[in-house]
């Protein structure tokens, strides 16, 4: 059986409370994910991407640009 928002009473929380809960959940997941070791294939892929970005710096898009594009798309 899947637990729902209603089962947990989350649907009765304010938007601010739900956002705070979502942030707390995300932070707890991030802490666990950071502690988990990378698989060899994951490490190899990260190393490949890093080498590619060093070899082709003009092909890298800054996070600020990506974020601005995504926000612009979300507004339309």
The gist of it:
By secondary structure, the chain is mostly helical. The protein is 71% helix and 0% strand.
Count of distinct strands = 0
Could you say how many structural domains there are in total? 2
Query: What string, H for helix and E for strand, traces the elements in order?
Result: HHHH
Please outline the major beta sheet: none
Count of alpha and pi helical runs: 4
How would you state the average pLDDT, rounded?
A: 94
Outline type: flat
What oligomeric arrangement do these chains adopt?
single chain
Low-confidence stretches: none
Please provide a written account of the structure.
The chain has 76 residues and is mostly helical. It has 2 domains: 1-36; 39-76. It has 4 helices and no strands. The protein is flat.
Features:
76 residues; mainly alpha; 0% strand; flat
SSE arrangement:
Blueprint: H1 5-8, H2 15-35, H3 40-55, H4 63-75
């Amino acid at each position: 059986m899947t637990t729902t928002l209603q089962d947990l009473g989350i649907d009765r929380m304010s938007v601010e409370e739900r956002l705070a809960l979502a942030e707390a959940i995300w932070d707890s997941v991030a802490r666990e994910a950071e502690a988990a070791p990378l698989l060899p294939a994951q490490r190899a892929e990260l190393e490949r991407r890093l080498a590619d970005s060093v070899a082709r710096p003009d092909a890298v898009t800054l996070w600020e640009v990506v974020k601005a594009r995504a926000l612009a798309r979300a507004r339309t």
